[in-house]
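Next up, sample data.

:::
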Amino acid sequence: MKTRYAIMSAALLATASFTTFAASPLSEREAQNLQSAGTVTISGVRGSLDDATRHLSQKAEEQGASHYRVIGVQNPGDSSMWSGSAEIYR
């Protein structure tokens, strides 16, 4: 019983800590009332648009941002390599 309780507690803490520290995306309209803290960029990210956006979110979080707004993401030609930028907010 103690083992089961410990596993459930650890899972709950892991979920709570991930939710607490993740940078949240904003629309342009939502960002109007916030002050920019700079930008983050990515390049050479393999995969899909979701992978590129996830990398932007991670970089925003690493910079201490609570929110970010994707400025642009591009994929040249038929490449699976993405680059992009996002404005960050604290």
About this structure: The mean pLDDT is 81.
